[in-house]
Amino acid sequence: MLLRPVRDTEEDAEAVRRLAEASFAVFESNPGTATVMNPPAVRPAPGQPARSRERVRHLARTDPGGGWIATDTGGRPVGAAQSLVREGTWGLALLAVLPEAQGKGVGTALLGRTVQYGRACLRGIVCCSPHPVAARAYRKAGFDVHPVMRLDGSVDPGRLAAPDGPVVVGSAAQRDMMDSVDRRLRGGAHGVDHTFMLRHHRLFVVDEFTGSGYCYLREDGRVELLAATSRRLATRLLTAALLSLPEGGRASLRDVTAEQQWAVDVGLAAGLELSTGGYLCLRGMRPPSPYIPSAGFL
């Protein structure tokens, strides 16, 4: 096995995308056979490989020392990892190993390189899949393991109370506000990652005298990231985001920790089904709240 950095090229971006997609496919069909330690999102929808490659290249540019590809003796990629550092907060955005490479130290080596990249950071965060190997690996690496929930289903707007105040469509003009909220909740701003998310997701914001917050919503109805300075504003943002979906539209919330009961309440009121869904692994920090992390940007 050889390790090399992920380069900012279409070739490497496609290699990482294919690795993640292949690992997802096997994990979904038989969770006991594939190692997908922290998938960056649900498996990409058909017609969106370009976005997946763009995300890989975004991280290769911002964090060239945080991404690695593992190859076998023939040069074929068998595993990949990408991590990022944002103002003293380290995050693991992807760690995937093909099933045939399991048990050969590939995942351990990739994790070691990414953890080393964040060695100077006080805080660390990983959205971890339910795979038992994943939780064990992150706990062994010094992370606290927090079980998380997920909510999925079709939104019934008639069951949701109207938001208790205004929510507006956001833009790059709110970058400073969003970075300020990030620092308050997770110790580091998302910074350049907001630029990527603004290109691909709808943004809802609240910014008033009593507090601030924002919510990114994907076109498939998944909440990509939500952060606010109070549970009241978080509830308002999530309600507005769900109500923006078309009638009968499906919604999804992932990586919801026990501290986010406000999100559970809104999701259940909207008719979503609650289930368990992996772990949020943290080092040097408590679960941010009110907060729903982005699996790809933490």
Keywords:
298 residues; Aminopeptidase; single chain; GNAT_dom; Acyl_CoA_acyltransferase; GNAT family N-acetyltransferase; alpha+beta; 5-stranded antiparallel β-sheet; 8 helices
How would you describe what is shown here?
It comes from Streptomyces marispadix. The chain is an alpha+beta fold and 298 residues long. The chain folds into two domains: 2-142, Aminopeptidase (3-Layer(aba) Sandwich), CATH 3.40.630.30; 151-292, Aminopeptidase. The chain contains eight helices and 14 strands. The strands form two sheets. Strands 1, 2, 3, 4, 5, 6, 7, 12 and 13 form a nine-stranded mixed β-sheet that branches. Strand 3 (67-71) and strand 4 (77-86) form a beta hairpin. It is globular, with a radius of gyration of 18 Å. Mean pLDDT is 91; it is low at 31-35 and 38-46.
Topology overview:
Blueprint: E1 2-5, H1 10-29, E2 35-36, H2 49-62, E3 67-71, E4 77-86, E5 89-97, H3 106-117, E6 123-128, H4 132-140, E7 144-154, E8 168-169, H5 175-186, H6 192-200, E9 202-208, E10 211-217, E11 223-228, H7 231-243, E12 250-256, H8 261-269, E13 273-283, E14 291-292
Parallel strand pairs: 5-6
Antiparallel strand pairs: 1-3, 2-5, 3-4, 4-5, 6-13, 7-12, 7-13, 8-9, 9-10, 10-11, 11-14
